[in-house]
Predict the structure.
Amino acid sequence: MDSLTVQVIVTVLVGLAYVVGLMGIVVPVLPGTITLVVATLIWAIVIGGWTAWIAFAIVLILGAIGMTTSYVLTGKRLHAAEVPMWPVYVGIAAGIVGIFVIPFLGLPIGFLIGLYVSEALRQKDWKKGVTSAWVAIKALGTGILIEFGLAMLATITFAIAVVVHFVTA
């Protein structure tokens, strides 16, 4: 195989990894932002050149900001509402089980049920469980939106780098 063929194959595979990474931000069972960063690193190593390495640096910075901001804001909101992380973990576990019980919709349904039940049991009140579960869902949603937005900027950066690389190659 010639060099250009390898570059095209690697670029297509990295593009598919971007799809998985973006889905992973929304569906926390899959790897998210880290997939984007690692895929871009692999692409930069294979492709080489200033375009690839600048794209990797930008994607790395955007990924770090997105993950950090998401984690910090979500943690602050959960802490302010006095919601511990373990009900969220129970919700994630219930979502994973839900995938196998109800295809496609099992993840969100399982997550919501797991989060609500664990919060209701923790609060020892079903009404307070709804309130604190809603706070947790809003906090997680805000974090996901921020991380996804920065991941989309990373995706645009990668797409521009691909165009620049192949037009100037």
About this structure: The CA atoms of residues 98 and 106 lie 4 Å apart.
